[in-house]
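User: Reviewer 2 asked us to show a designed sequence for the structure in our supplementary figure. I'm pasting the structure tokens here. Could you produce the per-position amino acids so we can include them in the response letter?
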């Protein structure tokens, strides 16, 4: 099957083959061609270039599907490398508490927060959980997300963590977008283990992880390494065990406090360390030369009123930065990556180019798919956003609520 997209005003996000992430000054460049065409064969980008004298209707034969981009932008789909979109119900009641002035930690300490979602998930059947989650998957695809990482972590018992991970597996098998599963058994201490945190950690290591590994349910392992949740030592214990199963970490670090999560993540070769609302220069130093992608979640900063990560300082230090939505019912109830891109510019002062790269190639890296997604490159999957005609790349975050997405192509 061949598809030709013609009449492309600007083809943006072009990268040479083999570039898996962009760092430092390179983050400020977005390769593009004006007046372009692009050819897709069997779901893969097979050719693209400037249109003049090369591509027009009919030149590829009549059995081919032609898509008129009508002068719009064509760019790679967003890759959302950090989400919790498999959850049951919502936490709109806590939203009222939050507005009334309670902090995220205070809501959690009262038994709300993650434990509230765990109770709801426990009462929800696997089929219903899949149905609710697929609504969110369809929602994010319509907004241009072509790959998503999804975490467990609202189960907190062996059975319920497996239930979540099986739902993620089913999404992987049925949804057109690319899905990676992340086992986050250490998201909070389950209710039955209240006051027995070290026993809970032992259970994560000795009961949950072996079962998750045996069923092949996780691409990654995660720990909420932060004040009031899990310590650096507990994180190391879990990552040590996961390494025995060959499962690479992606860590929640430095959301609430400077937690040591970045250092332990880098030590265990985490693919990414995520959140980083609180960062000292020590975290920047330890990330230098590592293969770990610093990932920031501005939707969480926005919703919880937390500081925004120091993305610009990271980039100035020569590091890469990825952005992701953190879509979850407690700290970021939105999976709109265009809004994330806009927050990257407006609140973190990234240039549109830096924010674009953070939401595409670098977030693809942060979920281990930048060899097949995240840029316009021959041989990569044709996951593409076609926009209405827009004046520039900057218009995408600038006019972030304007419905400019004309079509999203996601190739299985
Ligand atoms: O990334 N910080 C930990 N986990 C999620 C929030 C989960 C929740 O509140 O339901 C986050 O912000
Ligand atoms: Fe998260």
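Assistant: Here is a per-position design you can include in the supplement:
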């Amino acid at each position: 099957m061949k598809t030709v997209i013609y009449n492309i005003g600007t083809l943006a996000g072009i990268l040479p083959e083999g570039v898996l992430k962009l760092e430092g000054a390179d983050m400020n460049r977005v390769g593009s061609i004006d007046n372009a065409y692009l050819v897709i064969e069997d779901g893969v980008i097979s050719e693209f270039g400037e249109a003049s004298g090369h591509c027009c209707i009919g030149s590829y034969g009549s059995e081919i599907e032609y898509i008129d981009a009508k002068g719009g932008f064509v760019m790679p789909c967003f890759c959302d490398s950090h989400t919790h979109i498999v959850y049951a119900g919502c936490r709109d009641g806590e939203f009222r508490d939050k507005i009334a002035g309670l902090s995220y930690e205070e809501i959690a300490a009262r038994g709300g927060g993650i434990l509230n979602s765990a109770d709801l998930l426990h009462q929800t059947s696997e089929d219903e959980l899949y149905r609710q989650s697929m609504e969110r998957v369809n929602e994010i695809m319509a907004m241009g997300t072509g790959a998503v990482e999804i975490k467990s972590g609202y189960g907190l018992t062996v059975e319920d963590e497996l239930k979540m991970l099986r739902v993620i597996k089913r999404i992987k098998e049925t949804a057109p977008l690319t899905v990676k599963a992340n086992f986050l058994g250490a998201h909070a201490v389950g209710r039955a283990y209240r006051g027995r945190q070290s026993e809970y950690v032992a259970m994560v290591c000795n009961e949950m992880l072996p079962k998750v590994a045996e069923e092949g349910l996780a691409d990654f392992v995660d720990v909420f390494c932060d004040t009031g949740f899990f310590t650096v030592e507990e994180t190391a214990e879990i990552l040590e065990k996961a390494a025995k199963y060959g499962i690479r970490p992606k860590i929640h670090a430095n959301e609430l406090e400077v937690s040591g999560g970045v250092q332990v993540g880098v030590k265990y070769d985490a693919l990414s360390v995520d959140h980083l609302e609180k960062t000292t220069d020590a975290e920047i130093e330890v990330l230098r030369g590592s293969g770990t992608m610093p990932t920031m979640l501005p939707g969480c900063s926005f919703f919880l009123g937390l500081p925004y990560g120091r993305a610009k300082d990271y980039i100035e230090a020569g590091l890469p930065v990825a952005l992701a939505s953190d879509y979850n019912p407690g700290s970021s109830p939105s999976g709109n990556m265009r809004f994330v891109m806009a927050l990257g510019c407006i609140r973190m002062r990234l240039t549109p180019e830096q924010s674009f790269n953070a939401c595409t190639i670098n977030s693809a890296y942060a979920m281990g798919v930048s060899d097949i997604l995240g840029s316009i490159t021959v041989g990569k999957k044709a996951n593409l956003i076609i926009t209405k005609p827009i004046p520039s790349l900057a218009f995408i975050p600038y006019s972030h609520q304007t419905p400019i997405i004309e079509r999203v192509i996601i190739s299985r």
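For the response letter, you might also mention the following. The chain is about 35% helix and 20% strand. The chain has a mean pLDDT of 96.
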